Amino acid sequence: MNDTPRRGPIARFFIGLWDAMNFTRRLILNLVFFALLFIVLAILGAGPRTRPLLDRTTLVIAPEGALVEQYSNDPLTRALGKAMGERGGEVQLRDLVRALDAARDDKRIERVVLDLDELDASGFASLREVAQAVARVKASGKQVVAFAEMMDQKQYLLAAQANEVYLDPMGGMLLEGLGRYRTYYRQGLQDKLGVDVHLFKVGEYKSAAEPYVLDAASPEAKEADLFWMNDVWQRYLGDVAKARKLDATQLAQSIDQMPAGIASAQGDLARFALQTKLVDGLKTREEVDDLLVQRGVADDDADGGFRQASLDEYLLQLDSGLEAVDGRPQVAVIVAEGEIRSGEQPPGTVGGESTAALLREARDDENVKAVVLRVDSPGGEVFASEQIRREVVALKKAGKPVSVSMGDLAASGGYWISMDADRIYADASTITGSIGIFGLIPTIPRALDKIGVHSDGVGTTRFAGAFDITRPLQPEVGEVIQSVINKGYRDFTGRVASARNKPVEQVDAIARGRVWSGEQAKERGLVDELGGLQQAIEFAATKAKLGKPDSYHVRYIEKAATPFERFFTGFVGSRAGGAWLRDSDMARSLLAKASPQAAADLRFLEGAITPTRGVPVKALAYCFCGL
pTM of the predicted model, to two decimals? Predict the structure, then answer.
């Protein structure tokens, strides 16, 4: 019989330590497992944070953040932001319009309230689409009430459509007109830093790069800007005057005489807005809530004390009724929003490859019978724009009609990707045109000399290293670059002439980098019809012979969310998930490290000088013409 040898005290210590570590490891793994199991069960049991929509509900539309065509961040980031109570962000134009149009015919919605303090609008074309949707609600007989504590003139364009507009007594609202002022860097770059910026362009109105070579706007730039801005501003005054039953001329005079008017109101901006009949009354938020309680249904559990549904809640209601599979033929909508850059780009930026891939997906999908390209872009790189234009042409060759709906801005490269569509629609206040090309090259030998740094070396030809920014730019090299830019302009105007069935000379007369409003562009044949996205969809469907609107389905083709993003978005949208994220400091700290972060946009100048293989300068079709 063999006896088991006794372990010494040192061995027993390490064995005990090992057992303790094993126990701790198993305990942690079990805790993590049960925590994950609890989360999954919470997701399955909680469901979406929606309540049945009751009769006599007030729809409260209080958009927070920028009004955009397409979200620029992923669903997970948006869901996390909402769950943690972050303010700001983005609201999609399409969501605002469809909520308003649905509310117009929804018998459960008694009235609509517009709370506009947090809306950050960009251009007037998209605002006019929302304003028209508000006007349709009012025309249906449903009351629309607008309120703000502080309001700018863009927010006011929406508020003006309401039956009643209220402003906080301590608030303010001014109509001031349109202006566009830019910062000019020539003296700072060249005289102070010694950076010589060389601009090559075609078109005296192509002013995008002027700030790098001038100290003030050129006469041509001021002439062109004032021409289209006056057109947009007069239309704005007309829209407000019509909605408020005012005289547009008197409204313009009240703005011109603003100092005297505000003085007569003793510096009270809210009272001045009331005196000029831009608002119907001065009320605090609590007083507006009391008014809505009296007119609606009291609900002590709701914000403000009246029965209501928020924009997000109402959109969930609308989406919950959608069928999982729709067998009807499709009109695909593809959004091209932001600067046009090469390669794969995230939403909010147009990628030569990524946006072209979406168009190609529509071409290859047998269920898609027609396509609408929604463009809101100042342009960007010429080659990337051409990649997208080629896909538009390929769609037409495949027998699928293509219409373009221009948003706030479809200029320069934004027009390049639009011009070959079967029909181009623009709002009268869209900014478009800017048909021109430029290139920008800085050289820094003088800047280096200021700190005692110099560049020297040898090359096998006199042009070897000629495009190195640490060397002075030779005149012969400048001639090469200008030839490239001239060729780009010929390509641009030639393609416009072919697409729009116009002589090149006629296109050149309205090109040369000049910017137009949508109305002005239509007068010059650059746009076919004035209208919004819905009109572009109806045209594409009609041309594809799809029948009445209820016989086809409109589908946005966008980059799909990953399975994890869909899973986690559903979790944080649930009651349990939202509460866990709001109340758990641990969750906040972990998610702050793990959640995806959007890459910072490249500065325009940095992108312009990024070298491209095989070409001496990156040809740009870009317009700094937004408001």
Answer: 0.84
